[in-house]
Amino acid sequence: MLPVKIALLIFCFTIVTATTVKQCKKGQPFPLNVTINDCEEPPCNIVKGTTAIMDMHFVSTKDNIRKLTAKVSATTLGLTVPYDLPEEVSDVCSNLLYGAICPIDETEDVVYRLNFYIDYLYPEISVKVEVSLMDEDNESVACFNVDIKVKKGASAALIE
Description:
By secondary structure, this protein is mainly beta. Helix content is 14%, strand content 40%. It has three helices and nine strands, in the order αββββββαβββα. The strands form two sheets. Strands 1, 3, 5, 6, 8 and 9 form a six-stranded mixed sheet that branches. The protein has a three-stranded antiparallel sheet with strand order 2-4-7, with no helix packed on it. A hairpin with a 2-residue loop joins strand 5 and strand 6. The N terminus and C terminus are likely disordered.
């Protein structure tokens, strides 16, 4: 019985609070919640040379979705540019948590983990990031925006 109590206690201390994010402007479906590690309220401080972890909990809008791709864009100083993710990151189906697999059925709720590497070369600026999950018909299943601030970490100062 003691191991169960310890596991429950550890679980209680590891509960993560959802991050406040905004809906995308084109009316795409909004996720149930988004959790960005170490960030409850934007702008989220993202450290160069680390991987930002974003968990996106969403509900499928269609039956039998066999392929989902994460698309990311960044807006700063009025300029929006796409950010190409590596295929192993952008492939939503291979990054679903809690045993979920594709195909996903309508009204099924799943969690996608986006591991977003912040290169040392990124400028230290504020950026609005949009993450959209696109199905095989190029329709958005879920989309959100979040403001981030790229910062230099303590170890980055040693490299430069």
